[in-house]
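Let us begin with a simple case.
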Amino acid sequence: MFNIEDYNYELPPGLIAQVPVSRRDHSRLLVVDRLSRAFSHNRFFDLPKLIRPGDLLVINDTRVVPARLFGRKESGGRVEILVLEHPDSLETGPTSRICLLKSSKRPRNGIILFFDSGISGQVTEVLGNGFVKIAFKGNGSIDSLLEEKGHLPLPPYIKREQEDRYKDLDKVRYQTIFSERKGAVAAPTAGLHFTRDLIEKLEEAGISLVSLTLHVGYGTFGPVRTKDIRKHQLGEETYCLEQETVEAIACTKEEGGRVVAVGTTVVRALETAARPHGSIMPGTGKTDLLITPGFSFNVVDALITNFHLPKSSLLFMVSAFAGLKLIRDTYALAIERGYRFYSYGDAMLIL
């Protein structure tokens, strides 16, 4: 249960979704009942019929920053960075940020990197595993440059060239329709399936929707290098829970409804802010909560999520929620039925 190899599986490469379906809510939805261990195959637009009136959907309204930037070294060699730290608003001057640096040689202190718009950066600290701290200089801010020239940091299993014909599509479809608060370096992918029309149908069916913010960081997707999954350490991610959302959750619980988390990021935020008996503390904080089998869920009653990578912390979480054996059976069925996997893939609803 805690051995990393328990979370490995073989996925045919052809099932890794490279582009989204033509309409967000036309992705497939595999429903998993934890009590009966039964499965049903649906489309995402069937969601209003699959959950009950009085249930509450909680979504993540974070917005992905175009944090991937190309530049060059003093030697002329090409370099790529992923800026991992983002303030709430655009800065007026240069700043220092932790970044993930990709280049042909290992980074070292003092090297100068050159980017567009007259902005340069100097590596001031090498943190290991490709992480560095860069002090940016120039007439403008690094945040303005990212908004102007940055690329969305698509996961490496979505294959794109630097100038790709899907660039405009990715700008729209790798953001949820809820995305408002900038700060994430990856999309909360369970939310990618929602449309305005679907939300209207959910509301007509007596199903409410509230939001929170958790800025998805690189640590959520970082490789697990420990044999015992409980020893894996996640990077901190910032979250914000408004009083309105906390009150809606409390009201739902009191009236017998279920709290349906739209994505693993929502689970982490809610369970981090939860007290032992299910009440939640509103406010802003940071979480490095790692959820593995044996975890006691205090808030979340049901979960909408995509299919996750082998040996990933996200797979640990869904296995904690539904049981490792049931998740292994679910993934085997999804592969057999040709479901599309990962960020642009299909979804599952765990009840």
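The second case is a distinct protein. As before, the sequence precedes its structure tokens.
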Amino acid sequence: MSHSEVSAGIEEVPPSGVDASVPHSARVYDWWLGGKDNFAADRAMGAALVEAIPTLRAMAKENRRFVHRVARFLVAEAGIRQFVDIGTGIPTRPNLHEVAQAVAPETRVVYVDNDPIVLAHARALMISTPQGRSEYIHADLREPEKILADARLTETLDLDRPVALTLIAVLMLLRDSEDPAGRLRALMDAVPSGSYLAISHPTGDFNPAEMSAAVAAATRGGMTLVPRTRAEVERFFDGWELVEPGIAPVAAWRPEDGRPDDPHAAYYWAGLAGKP
């Protein structure tokens, strides 16, 4: 689908509370995946990033496949029945709760995002199995205490039982000066032993030139993009026990259809760790 075809099919009147003049990561991602919940600023940013990294749309899809694989692993092999998904993005089926509940219908998922467009789609996120439950919180990773205190979380999940925290391509939106590790640690400290943390994170390790160009494009457009090295991503898991294969290229994290031809083709590190 071309840029012009996407543009032609979009309703350009944003919902209340949405500043359509500023690109938002959830809507840029939506455009990469072929969605229609985006505006001119989002498409311009998405196109600029694709110009910097021509295979970016394929990378976004690879990242979604990681979400599905890690969800199936957590439910089928680790016995997890509760998730908190930070930085949910605009619904793209199958969503995390649909993948998890296909294995264990009683699974409960709380989604968290700070984009009003995602809030507008919350009802779509909430279509759960009768046995399980899915909820949505309009909140920001920068305020973990608000997430943890929200009644929709405390009424949906039992924080005395293991919880999987999933942060898929979201920590990149926080600069080091915003203390992403500290914000994440507040969530990690709130869940009990037996819980898990899944992260995917863009990196310049595989193609420094293209990633540098993407960061420059994001900066020009007013959007934060912080790629991190393998060691920096691994530090987010400090104190927890990494599940094999440890920190791996996202395409090579427990692939279900054999080892990818080029595991470095998607510029993300990915990992999963359990809380001792």
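The two ends are 46 Å apart (CA to CA). The first strand starts at residue 82 and ends at 86.
Keep these points in mind for the review questions at the end of the chapter.
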